[in-house]
Amino acid sequence: MSFELPKLPYAYDALEPHIDARTMEIHHSKHHNGYTNNLNNAIAGTDLEGKSIEEICANPGLSGGARNNGGGYFNHCLFWNIMSPNGGGEPSGSISEAINDSFGSFEEFKTIFSAAAGTRFGSGWAWLGVNNGKLKVSSTANQDNPLMDDQCGCTPILCLDVWEHAYYLNYQNRRPDYVNAFFNVINWEEVNKRFEAAIS
Ligand code: MN
Fold first, then answer.
1. Ligand 1 mean position to 45 CA, how many Å?
2. CA angle, 192 then 23 then 42, to 5°
3. How many A from CA of 165 to the centre of ligand 1?
4. pTM score over 0.90
């Protein structure tokens, strides 16, 4: 069993004007596809073959191609699913209460998450994760993620790709504008589902 590139849950142009169709098409069909193929090659014939992507990411001492492409595969799968053309606005339900408990308010959460995304130097990701029922914002370099044993130890429920390939065609060097636009497409219903699963 090898990993397959998942279908996007919406069309390439569905997130416009916040994320443009050309960026989405290249990001999914070239970048994510590349991580998928390179992951399959990296784990072929190793102990990691046949494991779930979560198990691979959490494998102690994960390194090299399995780390870079295992992270790349997992991170993009989550990223596509926590965005929606019907997204944006403020969350409701359990995640809304948890955000208020952990950060004070939704606006305060937005400030903290945007700072994590904005200050990640070079390529990486910003995360909202759950650890012992508590929410935590973090960021990682390259394709690392919170499941990896030397990272924050959270269950990731929301992520933002801040590699230049995720925004450069439309936003060039203006990463803060891209981060701001991302808040218009967050699928809070999906994030809430993942939060409730993580705490149950
Ligand atoms: Mn990417």
1. 27
2. 75
3. 6
4. yes
Domains, the chain, ranges and CATH?
Answer: 21-81 (1.10.287.990), 94-199 (3.55.40.20)
**123 CA to centre of ligand 1 in angstroms:** 9
CA 101–ligand 1 middle distance (angstroms): 31
pLDDT digit string (tens) for 26-55?
999 999 999 999 999 999 999 999 999 999
pLDDT confidence band for 152 (50 / 70 / 90): confident
Task: For residue 48, give the DSSP letter.
Answer: T
Rg (CA), the chain: 16
Question: 104 alpha carbon to ligand 1 midpoint, in Å?
Answer: 30
12-29 in b/e form (b: 16+ CB < 10 A) is bebbbebbbeebbebbbe
CB atoms within 10 A of CB 48: 17
Give the DSSP H/E element, type plus range, for residue 139.
strand 134-141
Instruction: Give the contacts of 190 (CB within 8 A, at least 6 positions apart).
Output: 81, 82, 84
